[in-house]
Here is the input.
Amino acid sequence: MFWNDIQHSIWLNGPEDKGDAGLHERGPYWLNGFVPLAYQLKAAGIDTLYPKCGIEKPHAHAEEEQDDERFPVGPVNPMGQVKEFIGAILASVNETDGWVGPGARPVVNGKKGDGNIYWGRSNAMFSLLQYAEAEKKTDPAEYTKVATVMKNYFLCQKKMMAITPITGWAAARWIDMALSVSWIIDQKVASAAETAELMDLGKLLHEQGSDWDQWFMFAGKGGRGTGNAGGHNVNNAQALKSSAVWYLFSGNTTMRAMGKSAMARMDAVYGLPTGMFNGDEIIPDPPTRNPSRGIETCGVVEAMFSYTTLGAVHGDVEFFDRAEKIAFNAMPAAWASPRGGDMWAHPYLQAVNEVNAIKADPHAWGHDGDMSETYGLEPNYGCCTANFNQGWPKFIKQVVMASPDGGAAVTLLVPSTSTLADGSTVKIDTTYPFEDTVKVTCSAKSAYPLYIRIPAWATKATVDGKAATGWSKQSCSGASTTFTVELAPEITIETWAADKNSDGQAQNPGYSVVRGPLLYSMPITHNYTVYAHHFGSGDEASNDYYLNPTEPWNYALAADPSNPTKDLTFTAGSAYADGAAPFNRTGPLSITAKVQLLPSWGMAVNSAAPPPKSPACKSGGCGAAKTVQLVPHGYTELRIGEFPLA
Here is the structure.
């Protein structure tokens, strides 16, 4: 409705120098998340949204003047926006060779051009893919049309790659292009000869693209990867699924182990309690787990999609576990609002220990600007503004999957109803992760096996009173069968192994409180300072904010990792309020803990210093114990998620 890079995107025939210039990625980034969101809203019976849009002219950025007519007021039709944008993409198809999209081509007059141009089309293909999937039943002709456009585009890309190989972002992110190619092959819209060419394209993308297998082996000094892939955080987040995507073309069964190895090695060197890894723009070298360092919001949503893709292909519970951990911790920690619960303002970088959100110069992160942890519309680069909305909609798409034996698998424990190919349904009734019970009800046109994922952390889980682990196999036969899953999570304290300093000596680990899929953090009360306004008024306003703490944050946790429940008490609180925003200060859960003020734990480059050595209060110097409420990490805007022990 108002952000220039989408509203005036070159994909919508906007001028080259006005919106979405350069890589032409932001329109497709946004659409890649908005297509599934629009169809999910439609499935929920929501066709029209009524935002409370102010009519005043917003304050323009200093470098950009804006016109009143760019800010419509009134109902928003998500499906209408999808159709408009998809229609513009389809209108850009070159009927001669199948090329799609605006701007320059990678091959000009038969000669080699820019091999990075392929990248801008990648998320356009993802958007078309999801649109075609959604229309397949209701409008088969539209599905066939879009799938054919995708097929012809990829056949054209293959010819061009013989002259101009992929480079830059396209080379690093070949996995996303290959995944769409695999989908086209599965749709059987290509002839036998075309299918062979598409298989060759997948192999050519792997051959010309970055060598992520080598990178994730971490053969380099200090744990850093080797090879030509590089440390860009979003590239790494997207590439976590490279083993799964390459398996689809190669059939190489060692890829399953490679996928697990990549996850384990990233955890070992950069891992964070939210399920993510440290890496502002570039993952740190030398490696560090400093919980104040930060991770880019684009990296969060891309890692979520990578882990669900790994789970879809390799079938391992642990990949879906990780997707949930990120979705329920890092994802909702990526926005802030004085009202709580809305997604108008996000940071470019989020940190596990984030004690302010200010113009920070100097700063703990290594490669981004001094505004990167402030909350707003576009606090550093606009890629996250366009891309963060893919997180939950694409996550929801993965809730129920077909199993190889003709059954269905409940892969993510998200409240939903899914319709299978034959009209059978699988309904998941729960407010997980805000409760510990999940009811799965299936209907069957004909009997089929149903697999319910039991998270690896749920060591005491039961299904209908019987112990269950891994993929709990049940049978669906009849009009309605309900299975009750009790997850029975327990409070644990995770120890985050120490970094090493420049002398190779171990530094001090931090400690995090976890229950089930949720990290529990100490919220820091704070004030808001508006430093820019973009759109709307009152309850629906897009502002940029500084956040400053109004209370001390430097506490040591008084708890025993070997016996957490001695010092930590979980409270479920009142029942979850249906329709309320699920995160950002609105949920019912908490863990009562004791902490002690630790004055020696101070600031370093405008962020919290790494947690001091534990036990931090052994020699005195700490305040008296006080009681605090730890809350799910996603409720917080400023927080401490990794403590020293008192």
The CA atoms of residues 523 and 530 lie 21 Å apart. The chain is about 30% helix and 20% strand. The mean pLDDT is 91. The longest strand covers residues 526-537.
